Amino acid sequence: MTDSADARHAARHGNAEARAAVARLPETSPELLTFLAADPAAEVRQAVAGHAATPPAVARLLAADSDAAVRRELAKRIAALVPSFSTDPRGRKARLSAGTLALLVEDTATEVRAAIAAAVGEMPDAPRELILRLARDTAMLVAEPVIRHSPLLTEADLLGLVAEPPVPATRRAVALRAGLGETVTDAIAETADVPAVAALLANPSAAIREATLDRLVTGSEKRPIWQAALVRRHQLPARAARALGAIVTDHLLGVLAARSDLPADLTAALRKRVDARLAAKEPAEDAEAVLFAAARAGDRDLLLSKLAEAAGVTEARVEAALALRSGRAIAGLCHSAGWSAPLAAEVQVVLGGLSPPEVVHPTLEGSWALGEAELQWQAELLEGLPA
């Protein structure tokens, strides 16, 4: 591989943009890339880190670069080479590249480790030790792609992550994995970890024993987020649906009654219960009308207490959610409370102190602008806030 005179000149005398352009050229030689690896401009070193012809020894030096973007680019490239490590494990290139990857997987920058996880998360031939290390990372940006997708994680590995999660969110990542068997789902259910169980119930491919589902229905009485997932769960047994019908809030009872897969007599009973609840409400006592009036009056205390009560959480957790100053988070909390999208918009302003551009507004028809999955996910995230 021979560099052109123009490339050599640009590498030595050009500005940073020109030097980076040389480092990105496919035909640039390993010798010139080695020279550019010591460039003072991070954008040039980043281009060298991502180049396929950069010598393994040079890559090893770049693994200690002071710029995280350089190390991230290197991590992406080296991680993509993982399948080739096994073809010549004793070769110098493979050994140096594997050593570089070992350094990068311990990098203090989350973005660097996340680049590795994104590259190897679904590889069937990645080193098992690497996968286990990434799965136990405390940053979910790193761990989640591996936990959810790696074919190398065994049932025993998943049970270990559930029993001793590096961080609470680890269990939720396991719960979202496709094709979970009953042994793992039982283990998740036993933890009573609120966001993890909610994610498990929302996972259509997770196999959950009927007895386990019954226990979760009982436990959902004080956990509205579980109820929201249960009423929408694929193949909900009739016994669980009957039990849910006795405890869920009005808007979830309507969702349950609208299912098409329940026995006809149960559906009729649920719809009758919905009608009875609607008939029992006097127009003058419409709950949302009272809440809208409180919002217009700026009655923060009333809105706060009613939201906590309807969502089944403490006022401290509502305050913690409001402190995030996230319209989506407040909307998710209002949705789990069974409140409408227009009322949620008022709550974001009065309780959250958000400006109009920050508010998640309803659609023109008055429905939620966010999808059901997004609203549920936002509510799940709040479960980790102080209670």
UniProtKB/TrEMBL annotation:
Q: In which domain of life is the source organism classified?
A: Bacteria
**What name appears for this protein in its UniProt entry?**
DUF2336 domain-containing protein
Taxonomy of the source species:
Bacteria, Pseudomonadati, Pseudomonadota, Alphaproteobacteria, Acetobacterales
Q: Which InterPro entries match?
A: DUF2336
Q: Please name one Pfam family that this protein belongs to.
A: DUF2336
